[in-house]
Design brief:
- It is built from seven helices and no strands.
- It is flat and about 70 Å long.
- The protein has two domains: 1-81; 84-185, no CATH class.
- It is 86% helix and 0% strand.
- The longest helix is centred in the middle third of the chain and has 42 residues, at 87-128.
- α3 (25-49) packs antiparallel against α4 and α5 packs antiparallel against α7.
Length: 185
Amino acid sequence: MELYEEKTKDITTNNILFMINRVSSDMWFKIKIGIIIAPIILLYILTYLIASNTILIIIAVMFFSVLCIIYACFIMFDILKKETGSEQMVEIADAIREGSEGFFSTQYTTIFKLSLVFGLAIWLFYFEREISPDEYITVTLGSRVTSFFVVFSFFLGALCSAISGYVGMWISVRANVRYNNHIST
């Protein structure tokens, strides 16, 4: 079986595979058990330390979100360990990978510029708008602080969207050659 690094120029995948191969199967088992047990124990402890159910729910959502991200990483590692196929398949996959990275670079440069314009527009809208008496948060914090948090939330959402789009494309481009190799054998 020819090594992936000998067939492709995909340095990031080579580095990930190098790190994965350094972890023993016993260590993988301990990591998986820790991922399952740690959030449950932490939530159990936090139920006694935190009086507010809202904060507890927020913490639980964050823990389970991190747990899902870690599970997605395990799936990614499993996909990346699969054989990539012939040199011709890897050559085509490299061309697709380079094209997708160029596409994302162009697309996200444009989206970044547009999000700055829309972020400024949102900030101006919330900064200059009149406060109605039924808006508790705006009355308490003021329109300036509220406008900052709204724009910060907008940029954070845009950043998370960009990261999820890039990661989805990154893994799908690398998974396609492995799936096609599986189908062709």
